[in-house]
Amino acid sequence: MRITGNTYTAEVTSDERLKVSASAHNPAAIAAEKQDAYKVIIAADPSATDADFFYLKNTSAKNLYIYQITLFLPTGATGATHEISIKTGVTGSPTAGTAVVPINLYTGGKAADVTCEQKDGDMALTGGNTVEIIRYEPAVTEIGPGEVVRVFHAPIILPPNTALVFNNDVDPVTTDFDMTVTFYFESA
Hints:
Layout: E1 2-3, E2 6-7, H1 27-33, E3 37-44, E4 51-58, E5 63-72, E6 82-91, E7 98-99, E8 103-104, E9 114-118, E10 126-136, E11 147-158, E12 163-170, E13 177-186
Antiparallel strand pairs: 1-2, 3-8, 3-13, 4-9, 4-12, 5-11, 5-13, 6-10, 6-12, 7-9
């Protein structure tokens, strides 16, 4: 077989078909091998509707890809609807947020080039366009009571020097909920 000027040997089946093999990995797994995949854990109580409780800014020269988001509601909140929107294009700087440090999925790997902040309350950011809504309805459990998992086969892409915010649209809970955001970087 000849491909772009190079000669290779290949096995052919008895039906005269080329015998090939392939393996597939999800992008997050490949990024983890490159030590460029992360998970950030958020524990927040927005305490109100329309409260921006998590801010993520890509300070890298690479694109940031959000691959998976898992929302865990407290035990007492499983009987109520909860809704979070993810918005890009927000303006302003987070007001009185607390820094959150993402964990490299390659244990001991490099730190993520991001700014992450969370707040119990509203960070007072304005504008933005909703790119995703995570909604928990008690009558439609996905994994188990109080847990919602979103795996994005077409990831949410955050280009260099852009930010997004998680906004609490419907807030039936009075205690913290936990959320993990799994993301990775690839060249822009």
